[in-house]
DNA sequence: ATTAACTGTAATATTTATTATTACACTATG
DNA sequence: CATAGTGTAATAATAAATATTACAGTTAAT
């Protein structure tokens, strides 16, 4: 699975646990173990869709903008990874009935698969992810 | 999606349309637009699980070994791509509650997602794929 | 008003994953 | 015994993901 998706989940969960202050891309990137620029890229998508707010300058950062229950994993998937389930078929042989039609058939099947998966992902809101993270907590941030 | 999965589907569909003679990895690879060695690798998995038979030497090749209705896309997924939905999380910060627990939480969620997707994939047998390929046929092999 | 701490984003470099290629042992057929 | 195949490992090439660098813009604090 596309890691923009999981980074978005990670970031939102992080923000969910810091509801009262802004978090920086540096802080989130340390938590997630990736480069801060990547975090900013992912968060810029989430901001564009209104899930978070950001503020530039000293004391700035990112903060959740919605209720935790309003954001589910399907929303996040659609923003970060729509179509990611589709296989990248090489150009196959158009002179073979299989080669000529497989791409179209697979596209249809995987489109359905994505829709189907959506029903599963809709069952998880960030609230639920936060609860799962809290369940067996190993240690805490500062 | 893992392309071993789609190559396996492609190959099996190809074999399904040649039920009376053996097909070579060269033939399949031309249809699918990939290297014959890759086809042989994928088919070697399918053989190990009894979906196809193979024969070495002159006049050898691959041939379907089961009824088309007995093989569904979930079977093929499990053989070629089990776990492929799992994101590859970088090592995150164990001293942050999010970093310390996210991997486990995501693992659980994506495990469920894979199981869920399985129900969808079980609905497609190779027979159905063959039918879809035949539906809007552009042209035929030899 | 200047510095420091941020976001935003593009361009480039690096790393990793996928895929192709080569090589060759083995098997069967004619 | 030559030819047409599979089986599989090792390596090379390519493509994709990720990190890094660079820098413009914003805000707060001194």
UniProtKB/TrEMBL annotation, chains A, B:
InterPro entries: Tscrpt_reg_Rrf2, WH-like_DNA-bd_sf, WH_DNA-bd_sf. Pfam families: Rrf2 (PF02082). PROSITE patterns: HTH_RRF2_2. GO terms for molecular function: DNA-binding transcription factor activity. GO terms for cellular component: cytosol. This is Transcriptional regulator. The lineage of its organism: Bacteria, Bacillati, Bacillota, Bacilli, Bacillales.
């Amino acid at each position: 699975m596309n890691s923009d998706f999981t980074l978005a989940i990670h970031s939102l969960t992080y923000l969910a646990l810091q509801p009262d202050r802004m978090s920086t891309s540096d802080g989130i990137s340390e938590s997630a173990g990736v480069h801060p620029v990547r975090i900013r890229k992912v968060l810029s998508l989430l901001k564009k869709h209104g899930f978070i707010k950001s503020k530039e300058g000293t004391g700035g950062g990112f903060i959740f903008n919605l209720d935790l229950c309003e954001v589910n994993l399907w929303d996040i998937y659609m923003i970060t990874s729509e179509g990611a389930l589709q296989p990248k078929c090489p150009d196959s042989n158009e002179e073979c009935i299989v080669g000529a039609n497989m791409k179209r058939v697979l596209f249809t099947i995987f489109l359905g698969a994505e829709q189907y998966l959506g029903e599963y992902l809709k069952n998880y809101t960030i609230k639920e992810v936060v609860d799962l993270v809290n369940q067996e907590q190993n240690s805490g941030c500062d």
